[in-house]
Amino acid sequence: MEKNIFQRIIDREIPATIEYEDDEIIAIRDIAPSAPIHVLIIPKRAITSINSTDESDVETIGRVFLVARDLAKSFGISESGYRVVTNINSDGGQTVPHLHFHLLGGQPLGRMNSTHASGHGTGSPYRGTLREAGILILCAIGLAIGFNMMNSKSISWVKKEYDKVTATSNDLNKYLTSPANSPSTTTPSTPTTPNTAVPVESEDSKKTDPATTAAAKPAPVQEKPSFVAEPGVVKEITYDQFSRLMASAPYYLIDARGAEKYAEGHIGNATNFYGAEAQARIPDMLANVPRDRVILIYCDGGECELSHHVADVLKQFGYGPIFIFTGGWAEWKTKH
Ligand code: AMP
User: What is the DSSP letter of 45?
Assistant: First the structure.
């Protein structure tokens, strides 16, 4: 049976911001917080929900509330107030089938509204209607948020600002076999001699349409240049720099666009890791992205930040150097 996301966090297969941990309980920051403080307190035992608890869980669940109390204190919300809730099955809004408790606070959370509120006996004939209209608006907003979260092309609520550093020739030269012989006009289709590009083939890349990628097929491996890892280094590169790295550096190429665009055409032997799903694809990336290669990433070009999303995740796991080809697919297409 496939592990749920919390089990994978408990087993350290994917990262999380851990606020508390002991042998039985782990508390992590919610990845999509509903309040300024939103922590998930998760019993480590594989319990699906309150429905599957038994006598042996009484102590652990009791301790969940003590952990909530202590976390609330450490976040300074004990006095202002907070909420501890658990969702059960679909009507309860449970999305992860592993028992967990939401600790929410840091702002007024409002009352727990009844979905059966009708205004009967309130004294005002309009009050019920207004309340229902409010509920409808909230439902519509909830649906829109839910749709946005589930949509693979979702809009992020907070736009992350990335440090954008431009690579210099020196940043690149150490990875090029013969930098002096690699003119800036070199393209992957006309590699310098000897060509030492060492791309790593992926399963995805083998499905590539030859018509769209023939120009970028790397030449056979002749010699592997030495590779010096630079963990966490992310720099932006131009088309010429990208072309030089592809021609004579050991590289691993990532297309950070969505799967549909990737299927329509992509550069050379690129592997597709969609930037908007970078967090969810961490296990996949860790299993496939080599550490002894320069990582090259591109997306659409222009304002596209999907490459940075992927770079951000790889950076967290000590990959580097990572070079982002800012011109991306748009520029590549105009030149091939
Ligand atoms: P529920 O809807 O009650 O099952 O709550 C599941 C919660 O888990 C949601 O609030 C999600 O935002 C949160 N969540 C899902 N994946 C992760 C993750 N990888 N790290 C932290 N929180 C997550």
Answer: S
